[in-house]
Amino acid sequence: MHKNRINILGTEFDNFTEKQFQKYLSDDMDARSNKFIVTANPEMVLSAQKNPKFSKVINSADYVIPDGIGIIKGAKTLGTPMHERITGFDTLMYLIKTANRKQLKVYLLGAKEEVIKASAKRIEREYPQIDLVGYHDGYFKDNQIVIDEIVQKKPNVILVALGYPKQEFFIDEYRKNIDAIWIGVGGSFDVFSGTKKRAPGIFQKLNLEWLYRLIKEPTRIGRMLAIPKYMRLIKKEKKNAEN
Ligand code: UDP
């Protein structure tokens, strides 16, 4: 129905506006559809290039959204511009607000124990119409115990924060057990819980969130070197297409 996808170095992104995407999600929630959302950034695109299993899982998701200005820039450079960036964090907030409005059941999985507890507390405080059916930190050994609990609680929305590619592999393996909206949200609970701050508005406006994160967590430098590498590969791909 909305399969207008743009291929960026092998990862197929949905090309729609955030508004259109939100309408699909709202309809999915009403229909209790089984949907898998991947929010992918340049790092994940590179990782998928090296890991065919991860690539297959991403490309089999129902929605793959461009979480990162690098994806929008890459699409433009390749001559297949996309509507707009849609961040994982904004998608998480949309799902939480909509679940509250529709009075749905939500399950939180992942992050450190204190982070997930603080996230659950924030939901209970600020989104009281959500039926928060359970939560579990992301440092468990036995997947089966966790999935059995999730299935038994019958959530409509399952927010999974295990970092990539773990969260996508987890969702791909277990989504068949229960019809729900499944999304991998990376480090979003760290921000949602107030444990980590999101970049101030000015950084967001200038598309410099990455710089803010680097200042706060210099150890991320290794991960961030993925971005120039990604841009080099995009330019190479463009050259190949021209020849
Ligand atoms: N995490 C987890 N279990 C693991 C590995 C990671 O719950 O086995 C959590 C971690 O605590 C953090 C999130 O997954 O909340 C990943 O955060 P990161 O900032 O690395 O992800 P990004 O948003 O960059 O994908």
From TrEMBL:
Catalytic activity, as annotated: UDP-N-acetyl-alpha-D-mannosamine + N-acetyl-alpha-D-glucosaminyl-di-trans,octa-cis-undecaprenyl diphosphate = N-acetyl-beta-D-mannosaminyl-(1->4)-N-acetyl-alpha-D-glucosaminyl di-trans,octa-cis-undecaprenyl diphosphate + UDP + H(+)
GO biological process assignments: cell wall organization; teichoic acid biosynthetic process
GO MF annotation, one: N-acetylglucosaminyldiphosphoundecaprenol N-acetyl-beta-D-mannosaminyltransferase activity
Annotated CDD domains: Glyco_transf_WecG_TagA
Pathway: Cell wall biogenesis; teichoic acid biosynthesis
Coiled coil (UniProt feature): none
Keywords from the named record: Cell wall biogenesis/degradation, Glycosyltransferase, Teichoic acid biosynthesis, Transferase
Highest taxon listed in the record's lineage: Bacteria
InterPro entries named among the record's database cross-references: TagA_TarA, WecG_TagA_CpsF
EC number: 2.4.1.187
Entry keyword annotation includes Chaperone: no
Family according to the record: Belongs to the glycosyltransferase 26 family. TagA/TarA subfamily.
Job of this protein: Catalyzes the conversion of GlcNAc-PP-undecaprenol into ManNAc-GlcNAc-PP-undecaprenol, the first committed lipid intermediate in the de novo synthesis of teichoic acid.
PANTHER family registered for this protein in UniProt: PTHR34136, UDP-N-ACETYL-D-MANNOSAMINURONIC ACID TRANSFERASE
Protein's name according to its UniProt entry: N-acetylglucosaminyldiphosphoundecaprenol N-acetyl-beta-D-mannosaminyltransferase
UniProt organism field: Companilactobacillus allii
Lineage, top ranks: Bacteria, Bacillati, Bacillota, Bacilli, Lactobacillales
